[in-house]
Amino acid sequence: MMPKMVNDDIKSEERHYVYLVRCADDSLYCGWTTDLERRMEAHNGHVPGGAKYTRGRRPVVLVYSESFCNKQDAQRREYAIKQMTKAKKLRLIEGVK
Asked: For residues 33 and 62, what is the distance between their CA atoms, to the nearest angstrom?
């Protein structure tokens, strides 16, 4: 399944991403980054870093992301997504309003 990308018209050097990954135990993890590819490698243990939460739930798969022009907007959106129920997060991934 390809992750849904939102706001894809922002130049890459300006991007801050909010993302959702599906873990091997079917849980969802939300975070933000400036480099999605490197962050996925970190979550999957290929490079140093990654979240403690995902270390024991590998592999993880990127299922959703949004891009923003600034860090503050990305962090606000991350917080909003983290407040959602799993059902709402799944609807977000599926593109249902």
From this structure: 13
pTM: 0.84
What are the residue boundaries of the structural domains of the chain, listed by start?
4-94
For the chain, 97 residues long, give each residue's pLDDT as a single digit of tens.
445 555 555 454 679 999 999 999 999 999 999 999 999 999 999 999 889 999 999 999 999 999 999 999 999 999 999 999 999 999 999 997 6
Bridge partners for 68 per DSSP = 16
Q: Which CATH architecture best describes the domain 4-94? A: 3-Layer(aba) Sandwich (3.40)
Q: Between β-strands 28-33 and 61-68, what pairing exists: parallel, antiparallel or unpaired?
A: unpaired
